[in-house]
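Q: Entry one of two.
A:
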Amino acid sequence: EVTRAPRGLLWDDSVGTGHRALVMLSNLYLQILLTFHVYFWFAFGIFSVAVTVYKGLTFYYPNGALGWEIALLCVFFFLEWVRLSMASRGNKTETLEPLAKSIFLGFLGILGHAFFLRMQTWVILVEVVANSVGLAFSGAEMLFKLYTASRIYYDQRAH
């Protein structure tokens, strides 16, 4: 009689003992990255508001440029919040759909960090450092999300 593993778990005999063990599909390293990225996201939000106020009071902006940058910053923070929550939910529940949506939003997040890193009207050094850290988080998460999503996908195909 063939027994099946519960959904989200794989039978694994990688140690070669002949005994099968259940293996979780969720990724601990991804969850650790997501947890730290949430803390970074919160601090980055406060930091970005303070820097935007400073730049608005200190530097000259062409008509409407500061307003557009503030609007893009708000959209960016909202999308990052959605992306982080979907990635965490998809990883914890071992569900492909939230992870796939998070991967798509991850590309938008990387574009957002790239914009705030290089294409704003004024970019100061502390923003370069903060956005570089954000890019590192987002890039590492993308790799772990792709790996985790592929494991979940192949498990779903097996069942």
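Q: Entry two of two.
A:
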Amino acid sequence: METTHSFGDRAVLAFGKHIGKIFKYVPRVLKDHDPEDLHQLRVGVRRLRTAIIGFRSAVELPQGVTEKKVGKMGQKLGIQRDNDVLQEILVHKYLPHLPTSEQACLEKVLKRLQKERKQTFKATYKLLTHDRFTRFQRSWEVWLEYPQLTTLSGLAIADVLPDLLLPQLSQFFLHPGWLVGTEIDRDTNSSTRQRHCIDLSPSAIATLLDGEELILHDLRKEAKRTRYQMELFSDYYGEEYQQLLAQVKMTQEILGNLQDSFVLRAMVEQYLDVDLKQICPQWNAIFHGDRLGYWAQWQPLQSQLIDPDYRHQCRQLLQNPLVNSDQSTPSNL
């Protein structure tokens, strides 16, 4: 099989893979037998959106398809997925470790989530059986049979990779969330102004996280966008690229776990209309311990990724892709 090297060929390959995954999982999601099916469908939609952004210079999209519309589709699917995830966390992470009285509180929250889950599935079913989705599917089927490409599609993929990847890496590095829990080194001169992570007490960490929840959540979303775009082209780089990609993924996962703990606790207090610390002290202590644990995981990663020298190495890395890929069908599109 001939190796794919042009910008346009790479786009067609990526779209074909993601569209194939989306339409593979739609019938399974409609049967609603396994929450993993919805997760895989949503991943396919997210990766399609990333591919649209990454390859928009090489293609003319199918009629009626935009990055914004695909993003909205992912958001709608995410409502049901979030419900599934929260239920799983409650049952497997918290329920076994609570005393009987607090388990009763958790069961109340779980019952409400299960009730809401029925409504979210109705919305998902309506989305995937609507005429708009049928047109979306047909538009992609026609496009994949007769791809519409631009004049830039003939460029060698290795020649355009730095221009595709560096803007997103810059967005990632310039996010203000990196500054949370850091300060400027006193022993550095004013021209470098290097930063380091602050060693905080548990109570100070809790206060910091309560105040910076939203900005850290936004950094997580930026990490997700960066990860998906880097995965589009990972087979055109070597081991150092894979290491950077793993760090971006870890950023997304750690901050995602942290955000889940915020969302879940707020939801529990809202549903029960109580102060969790007063009514469920054991559960509250577990939440607190989880946050401290996630913060302990986060700081070493944060420390490396705010280092100016390391960031320079990352930029240099993206500017030097391999001339050829030895994979005829890239696995990480």
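A: Comment on entry two: The radius of gyration is 22 Å. Residues 239-272 form the longest helix (34 residues).
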